[in-house]
Amino acid sequence: MRTAVRSLLLGCLALVASAFAPAAEGERLKCVATIPDLADIVREVGGERVEVKSIAKGPENLHAMVIRPSHLVAVSNADALFQVGLSLEVAYVPALVEGARNKNVFPSAPGFVNCSIGWKAIQVPEVLTRQAGDVHPQGNPHLNLDPRGGAFLADRVLEALSKLRPASTDYFKTRHADFVARIDVARKRWDEIGAHFKGRKIVEYHQEYDYFLLHYGVERIGTVELRPGIPPTPNHLAHLIEVMKREKCEVLLTAPWSKNNFVDRVAEATGAKVVVLPSSCGGVEDSETWIKMMDTVHERLAKVFGTPIPPRQ
Ligand SMILES: [Zn+2]
What we know:
There is one protein chain. This protein is α/β, with parallel strands linked by helices. The chain has two domains: 12-189, Rossmann fold, CATH 3.40.50.1980; 190-305, Nitrogenase molybdenum iron protein domain (Rossmann fold, 3-Layer(aba) Sandwich). Helices cover 43% and strands 11% of the residues. It contains ten helices and eight strands. It has helices at 2-20, 36-46, 69-76, 93-100, 149-164, 169-194, 210-216, 234-246, 261-270, 290-305; strands at 29-33, 50-54, 80-83, 112-114, 201-204, 219-223, 251-254, 273-276. The strands form two sheets. The protein has a four-stranded parallel beta sheet, covered by helices on one side. It has a four-stranded parallel beta sheet with strand order 6-5-7-8, sandwiched between helices. Strand 3 (80-83), helix 4 and strand 4 (112-114) form a beta-alpha-beta unit. The longest helix has 26 residues, at 169-194. Bound molecules: zinc ion. Zinc ion is lined by residues 63, 135-136, 142, 206, 208, 228.
């Protein structure tokens, strides 16, 4: 009996040890990404030498992810955890890392990958406060929706994977170069589409699309939210409706998670067309990869603005 218990215990310990041991060269690197965009980019750069799971699936509010036991298990077994950073995942990543008790992904480990390091964030409060909103204390974290975001994130992923698997660096570099070349081709088309967006006016629910809008000179004249993460008050909505009518703003951008009664009310009062855009890959149809998602975002805006949409390559 005692031997049976002992072997069971040893078996459990072996399982735990294997969960905590960093992957040896040759084994596929087990990666967890917080958003599907990062999962796609890790797959693009890592190829067959990685396996990737994403916590978010796409349609969710990325600031308010619900963590399930399966996420904890995935992080417990991971060699690397890729996150956007800039407080996008602050509501759940610290607890997830603590709960998983996996030293590979502790904040000081090379497997804890903050992909926004080096990104020049917009809307950064002068001091670290909640003044800019409840969920953007370090500035706007939605860099995955910037047309330049894919290549930037791919650079961070290349650095991280090469550090974790030095012997595969050349393999990762080749795949990274191929991915970035495909982005460059897509961006020529995006620039052609976006050139017609300059000076157009929109309202958005949450400040999710600001990098994109800024890139093409689209004018955001207001948000449905009072501040990032704070729902509107009746006064705020009345003011927004008045401004939209005065400015002849006919487009209201929303994400799948934020297409709610407030959006419907503003659209009804102003006659604005509601356009659903993804917050991340997988959020809407035809957005399962980062390049496809950006294709879809450009096309949906061009459609509502009535501007040309050249065919995809
Ligand atoms: Zn946000």
